[in-house]
Each structure stands twice: as C-alpha cells, then as structure tokens.
Amino acid sequence: MKLLLCSDFSVVCYRYFKKFYTNTQGLTCLFVGYAQEDDHELESGSAMYFKEMGMKVISLKKGYKFNDKIDVVFVRGGNTTRLIHFLREYGQYDKLKELVETQDVLYIGNSAGAVLVGTDTAWTLPSEPYEYDLTKLYGVNALKGFGWIN
Predict the structure, then answer these.
(1) Ramachandran assignment for 2, one of left (phi > 0), alpha (psi -120 to 50 degrees), beta (any other)
(2) DSSP for the chain?
(3) How many Cα atoms sit within 13 Å of 81 on the Cβ side?
(4) Is the N or the C terminus of the chain less surrounded, counting Cβ atoms within 10 Å?
(5) Nearest residue to 54 (alpha-carbon basis) of 71, 77, 78
(6) How many CB atoms lie within 10 A of CB 87?
C-alpha cells in the first residue's frame, strides 16, 4: 500500500508525488471531494495539479461504479465527518478502502483525507461540527477510519 498524507497538498505535490511516479502521463486519478461543499472541485487547485501532470481526473460521485483502472486516489481536505457521511451514504466507503488495499494505487490524503486513514476520526468532531449524527445514521462504527495507520 502506498500512502502520501499531508495537511497541504499544494506544498508537497511536486516535491513528493514524483517519488511515486516518474511518468504521470496517462495515469488516472480518482478525485474524492466530498469533504468540501463546492460544486466545482475538478477546477480546484488540487485537481488542476493532476491535470497539469497529464493525468485523467475522475470525480467520485454518487453512482460511481469503480470500473476504471485507477492509479491514484486523491481525497481532498475539508470536513472529515462530511467526507465519511457521503462515502457511507453512497455506499462507497468500503469500495474505496478495498480499491486501495487490493490494487497498486497511491492514496493521497489531504487533511481530512489523511485523517480518514487512521483508526478513528471521532476526535475531529469538536473542531468540525457537522449537521448529521453519523453514529445514528450508520451505527456505532460510523466514525472509524480505514485503519491503515494508528
């Protein structure tokens, strides 16, 4: 499993990303933008970095089938609880986790995306209030992270 975790992707993008891939032309990035509310995440700075490197960028949306060959998963920063809510509501939480665990995929977690790889995300609740109670919606384990690091 390949992980690149950061609090500010724009600072580390060109410096560290190239350590994983020397040639980025033709690679595909699955862009997970649920942690933020804007509707134009593929025009954001982080998605543009991948496009500028010659990569195809696919936005993870409701109904995505996980049929594409994915080389990089980029999980954008923002509200961690919002991120988990939409991954769970759209049935993508386990599929995203499985993709990274079973394929040769680089997972880049920016802020909330980095928090998601830990064992638990509940510690973010005081600083990131969210309108839904995920434990009521999805059960007692709703705020568990992917568990790749402790």
Answers:
(1) beta
(2) -EEEEES-HHHHHHHHGGGT-S--TT-EEEEE-TTS--S-GGGSHHHHHHHHTT-EEEE--TT----S--SEEEE--S-HHHHHHHHHHTT-HHHHHHHHHHSS-EEEEETHHHHTTSSB-GGGTTTS--SS-HHHHH-TTTTB---S--
(3) 16
(4) C
(5) 71
(6) 21
**Is the entire prediction scored with pTM above 0.70?**
yes
**Angle, nearest 10°, between helix axes 45-52 and 9-16?**
20
pLDDT digits (tens, 9 = 90+) for 56-97: 999 999 999 999 999 999 998 889 999 999 999 999 999 999
- Sole residue written with tokens 């961690």: 80
Distance separating alpha carbons of residues 2 and 59, to the nearest angstrom: 20
What tokens does 103 get? 């394929």
